[in-house]
Amino acid sequence: MKTWSELAEVQPLASKIITNSIKKDRISHAYLIQGERGTGKEAIALLLAKGIFCENKAGVEPCLKCNACRRITSGNHPDVHWIEPDGQSIKIEQIKNLQKEFSYSGLESNRKVYVIKGADTLTVNAANRILKFLEEPSKQTTAIMLTENSGSIIPTIRSRCQVIDLQPLNLVSFQNHLVENGMAKENAVLMSALTNNMDDAFAWNDNEWFASARKLVIQLVEMFTSNPDDVYLFVHNHWVPHFKERNEQEQGFDLLLLAFKDILYFHIENEASMTVLAPTDQLPEKAAMYFSQEKLVTILNAILMAKRKLKQNVHPTLVMEQLTLQIQG
């Protein structure tokens, strides 16, 4: 989504609100753009920045070819600053450095833009620091805050921003788009259950680690139904070594969640919604006989709780051990 017209196809309301502001030269001093991953938050931030600095705009559309547009795309424009979480959060030192940058005059104009990705991860001190920035708005400064979790943004920050809500992408449309670009239908169904992001979907589709992760999830479900006494050993010998990084562990739980949802779908004769397990295999039927619908609901809640524990920095091996016992119980 490199133009406002492209963005309007997936986010018509957000696109209309912002382009009307650009036409009337009433760009807000601060935006809070909230929506799920892949819904266009960074695309909007880039387009806004280009709209401010582009040297050859055609109406609201940036030219995408001038020096300013190209440097904003590459992340090298001296007056456009991006802040991302340092580890699990955005820390006060990062905001102090940003304020220091903004104490200087713009290198190429008096305009400055800063984009805060994962604004919900601001520490309390960092949030209070950025709040002071927002309380003294300058017409020459535009803040763009991006978040997937708007509930974690403190009310005093929200009240000083123009809030732009992005709608979830249409699932069927996204699947069709993946298929049109060469992805197998069954893989497109799985990817659409995991992400709204085209680049992520194709990266995972071609990734050997991801393919192995999916096989491990299927094997684990089969172990629960066929060899429950060996599950603990399987987790330590195969699951833990494969899912090493935090993002891999979260993705493992996402796949496991979908697999147990598949068993529930098989129970209620909704095989068309299955993603990880193949309806034509024997495993869904076997697992449906082993796990009751009530038990599956309990398991799904346990997996969601395991994901929350990961985000709370509980040791991942301990989280997986506890989840294994809950599924077996």
TrEMBL record:
<dbReference type="GO" id="GO:0008408">
    <property type="term" value="F:3'-5' exonuclease activity"/>
</dbReference>
<dbReference type="InterPro" id="IPR027417">
    <property type="entry name" value="P-loop_NTPase"/>
</dbReference>
<dbReference type="Pfam" id="PF13177">
    <property type="entry name" value="DNA_pol3_delta2"/>
</dbReference>
<dbReference type="GO" id="GO:0003887">
    <property type="term" value="F:DNA-directed DNA polymerase activity"/>
</dbReference>
<dbReference type="GO" id="GO:0006261">
    <property type="term" value="P:DNA-templated DNA replication"/>
</dbReference>
<protein>
    <submittedName>
        <fullName>DNA polymerase III subunit delta</fullName>
    </submittedName>
</protein>
<dbReference type="InterPro" id="IPR004622">
    <property type="entry name" value="DNA_pol_HolB"/>
</dbReference>
<dbReference type="InterPro" id="IPR050238">
    <property type="entry name" value="DNA_Rep/Repair_Clamp_Loader"/>
</dbReference>
